[in-house]
Amino acid sequence: MFRHKIVLNLLKFQKLLEQMLHQPQQKTYLLAVSGGVDSMVLADLFQVSGFDFHIAHINYHLRNEDSNLDQKVVSDFCEKHKSPFHLYEVSKNDNQPENSIQNWARELRYRFFREIQEKENLDYIVTAHHLNDQLETFIINLSKASGIRGLSGIPKNENGIIRPLLGFSKDEIYDFAKENHIEFREDQSNQKTDYLRNKIRHNIVPELQKINSDFLTNFSKSIHYINQAKDFINQSVDDKIKILKINSDKNQIIIDKQTFSQESELIRYEILKRFGFNDENEMQKVLTAQTGSSFFNSEYQLIINRNELIFSCKAEVGNQKSEDSLILEIIDNEIIIPQNLKNEVQEFGNCFWKIDKQKVQLPLKLRKKQEGDLYFPIGMIGKKKISKFFKDEKLSILAKQKIWLLCDADDRIVGVLPFRQDGRFSSDNLETELTLKV
After folding, report:
1. Rounded CA gap, 375 and 382, in Å?
2. Domains of the chain: residue spans and CATH
3. Which residue windows are transmembrane per the record (predicted)?
């Protein structure tokens, strides 16, 4: 029978945990325990090691009485060892989908784990992923062309989640459970081949091990080397970004587009991926996009501005929809701008406007530019499109997105903050005058 060279035992487990964390005895943990052999061995290792931990279990009620028996194994362990036990029972209110049950279940359990971690102020979430899980994940990611990050597999320590059993095979975990008389439950649904992971587990991995009895051992070494290569590439990407950077602050990085386009495909791909743009087709669009083009993901906006790539945190780019508006208060004839917006406006300068309240329809509001907007800038003859005004002021694409327009209830533009107000609404009467100070 195949045997992985690192035999699972208590001392080896504790040493591996010490390599992952500084002074693990002083940390607190939330263990994700399903009742299966992997997580029950994990719970036993933490209990015998004397660590401070809680246990979380989710009963999905997908396997009738078997689900309840899984829960009982976990709750009995917690009762025996006086470990805090957190249970989530899935109900009809959880809107279980007909498809993608695995993704839904994963999102649900990690949301539950994070809630407990925050409520109980625990340092780490701990899962029982092992070497066989690592191999299955590698094969899945290999089929997706996921790049070196995908091929590096499941991380041992990332985002407050640690996986101390990744160096041990399933056989070693079974042996440890048998030798230490650890009670666990077998999930018979894992024997089915309905899901891709189960197909790999039952059809592909056994064949690989027939070809080479040391396959898992060699795979473990390969994953180690791939992770070293990933670390090297990440450092190279950091160095390249420093070279390519034209300017940056905590919310924005500007990169020279021409120099970026001359880098290798790998470096270009990894830089874009650093900002959440993972699609290869998207990378080609970035390289050929015209000035003014924008790309979005959940965290960043990428703007093409002449020979620049501007990466900005979406929270800082004025991601408010153009039809949204903010109603302003008037106190003692002064128009009140919220301090956070006042700080944003002051990036472009200050202003002191006098507005005749008889010439505007109250309430006044702030909004972003819309297509076709125009106004009559004070000191100029005639009307002017806001887009033309922006161009004349030589505002960058990103700056344009930060500009606020002061409008009245009829959506007439009273001024462009903080540049110019509309001459139609200026005041020459102290009795009807409203002031705006930025």
Report:
1. 9
2. 10-211 (3.40.50.620), 233-313 (3.30.465), 325-437 (3.50.40.10)
3. none
